[in-house]
């Protein structure tokens, strides 16, 4: 890759984040507030996604259970769905891959929890079914997606839609969302430990 291509990729990332800031600040604030209120109410945060979005889900759960910036705090209740390989393969094999997250929500979710669906397209079938299951169980839902209005947005209490159709740029902004929500949660509980 030449210098010009590297420069244009970074500039595109910066431009996307500037649009993201201009357009998504209110929804990102709502997402942070929902995560905080979930944990304050004794609920847990469940996250799910495919591929790179699965990694974002695991990253967020790891930061919340472990720590982000504040080391002197208890762990917060969070989990990434789809990371239990025996359950993932059994559900995928017996019921179909579209049910892997839905079944986990059914098994471990409860009213007062929050399900965060992460999908760059906004329409991943397994994320959609998980969000539908969550709504049926009285579980709050949040969506991190791109600008395309996929079916998942119809089942989200809060939707943060990155203003881009480029998967890599969307994922870069989703990582920003993960870090912002982790920082917001830690800040909200900083004086309560």
Describe the protein in words.
Helices cover 55% and strands 12% of the residues. A five-stranded parallel β-sheet has the order 2-1-3-4-5, sandwiched between helices. The longest helix is centred in the N-terminal third of the chain and has 38 residues. The radius of gyration is 17 Å and the shape is globular.
Largest sheet: 5 strands, parallel
Number of helices: 6
Structural class: alpha/beta
As a whole number of angstroms, the C-alpha radius of gyration is 17 Å
Give me the secondary-structure topology.
Blueprint: H1 3-40, E1 45-49, H2 52-65, E2 78-80, H3 85-94, H4 100-108, E3 114-118, H5 125-136, E4 140-145, E5 158-161, H6 167-189
Helix pairs in contact: 1-6, 2-6, 3-4, 4-5
Kindly summarize this structure in a few lines.
With 193 residues, this protein is an alpha/beta fold. The chain is 55% helix and 12% strand.
Defining traits:
193 residues; alpha/beta; five-stranded parallel sheet; 5 strands
């Amino acid at each position: 890759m030449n210098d010009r291509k590297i420069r244009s990729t970074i500039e595109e990332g910066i431009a996307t984040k500037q649009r993201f800031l201009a357009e998504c600040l209110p929804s990102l604030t709502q997402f942070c507030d929902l995560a905080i209120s979930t944990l304050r109410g004794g609920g847990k945060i469940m996250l799910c996604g495919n591929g790179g979005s699965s990694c974002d889900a695991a990253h967020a759960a790891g930061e919340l259970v472990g720590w982000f910036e504040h080391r002197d705090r208890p762990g917060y209740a969070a989990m990434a769905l789809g990371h239990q390989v025996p359950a993932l393969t059994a559900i995928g094999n017996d019921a179909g891959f579209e049910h892997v997250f839905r079944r986990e929500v059914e098994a471990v979710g409860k009213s007062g929890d929050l399900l965060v669906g992460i999908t760059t397209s906004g329409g991943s079938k397994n994320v959609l079914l998980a969000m539908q299951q969550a709504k049926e169980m009285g579980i709050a839902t949040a969506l991190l997606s791109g600008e395309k209005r996929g079916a998942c947005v119809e089942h989200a209490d809060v939707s943060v839609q990155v203003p881009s159709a480029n998967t890599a740029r969307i994922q870069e902004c989703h990582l920003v969302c993960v870090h912002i929500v982790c920082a917001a949660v830690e800040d909200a509980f900083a004086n309560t430990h």
